[in-house]
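agent> Task received from the user: take the single chain below, predict its 3D structure, and emit structure tokens. No templates, no multimer pairing.
agent> Plan: (1) validate residues, (2) run structure prediction, (3) serialize to tokens, (4) report one or two observations.
agent> Step 1 OK, no nonstandard residues flagged.
tool_call: predict_structure(input=
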Amino acid sequence: PMGVGNGQIQLINQNQAGGPYLGLGLGEVDPAAADALKIPPGTGVYVNAVVEMSPAQKAGVKAGDVLLKCNHIAVNAPEAVGRILANKKAGDVIKLVVNRNGRKKSFHAKLENPPMGLDVGAVQNPVWLGADIQDIDAVMKIRFNLPDTRGVIISHVAKNSPAQAAGLNTGDVIRRFGETRIRDVKQ
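)
tool_result: status=success, residues=187
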């Protein structure tokens, strides 16, 4: 129940028309990052991105948070959040518990129908590469021992995808595409 596209995972229930939509880009929490945030390894999922005006953003979730619980259920993989949303519909309110800079915070998000034109598998670009990318923040800089925060980092490569066939791996940094210097995900 999730589509991957343009660097963001859009969590949508595909079994019901129109929803629900949370608007989070999620990835796994690296053990080094878990240690830095003082959470046990294998706990939670890293919030790579929060879609503007999405239920998650309206609730107060921010990129860089680690999602610990969704609807009172502990999560440790992006797919776990998708399974929880599969039983929900637009209008339902779910509780989200996050770790933000070592402190727990909780939010209530009211699920919505996906924005018009949002298709599972594509957010803005219908070409599927099969890699989630994100801006490099302080946690990612530590996690992958990077010298700076320039470019974007690959946080997940889907199996049997064009990205995997091209040899891209989690942790690879993209700083240039052709002759264009890459500064951030939007670019």
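agent> Step 4: summary for the user.
The longest strand covers residues 93-100.
agent> Done.
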